[in-house]
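Long-time lurker. I teach an intro course on protein structure, and each term I like to show students one example going from raw sequence to a predicted 3D structure in token notation. This year I'd like something fresh instead of my usual example. Would anyone be willing to generate the tokens for the chain below so I can use it in lecture? Attribution to the forum is fine with me.
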Amino acid sequence: MNNRSTRSVPQPPREPSLRDLLSHALPLGLLCILCSVTTVTDAQSVRLYGVDDSVDGHVARLLNGDLFRTPIPPAPSAEAAPNGAAADSAAADSAAAAAAAAKFAKDCDDAHKKALGPKTAEPAKDRYAAAKTYRACVENARSSLLVLAPARAATTTVTLQPLEASLAQAETEAKAEATFMGISFGVGVGASISDDDRISAAEVGADGRIRATSTETQEPRVIFESHYYGWCHSDECNAGHRGVGPFFGIVAKDDKLISAFALGVMFGRKSDEGERSEGFSVGIGAILDSDVKSLADGFKEGQPLPPGETQISFEEKSRWGALLFFTRTF
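-- Reply from a regular --
Happy to contribute to a lecture. Here you go:
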């Protein structure tokens, strides 16, 4: 009897399936979606976001802003797949991955146009949101390239540093402009004036007529205000250089935490320093003071006491006035 020894035949390495890739990629934020993880050289092609190119080619397209612009090729339809539950599941996974990659690429391309396009084209808050989104896209692409070509990691990282630095700068400036244009707070100094006779102290003169000894018709004000520059959509306003919008404020006086409430329109201009959100603003509006002391009904300055009265009477009530103030936002 011939004894035959069995020897195992080495099998070629199995190419990871799309399901394997997705199970590792999705928890990392679509890392390397639709790409094959292999060790590559400079001349070899790798797949990133549905496009085959060399590592240097992908980096160049990323630097030019074209990496996410190429449409993602559609996945084979379930009808074209072989029969069987496993094949149907694989086709469904492939279609879902292609759809996710296409949406991811489109969102990144839209964010690139807003974040690095002309400042006058989009409001500051939209540019700030787009800058954060596109920075995450670039980080995702860089991480994918490092996984695809670990031998090229150092070169890829150094090559992409200027792009990442410019994105960080754009994000910082957009944040400062959005802060200036958005809901901001400031301390204003100004004055109010009222048409009402706000006589807080008076006496009866030698001629029997009422004479004011203290008035509050015109008063200096220190206002804590908040404003929102959302009414202007011109180029300068979109760029975050100027703003127009509503404000409201409160005034503290004596022992009262809130003695007056103000509202109106504010006009502002941001400082020229791109990374800072400070600005100079002017507010015009109305102010409502509570518990304003003044002469009671029937008592008038320069007139004698009403019949039957032997002394001056006062009353306290809320009164409106006009307000003008200046503020340095922060």
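Some talking points for your students: The mean pLDDT is 77. The CA atoms of residues 34 and 242 lie 45 Å apart.
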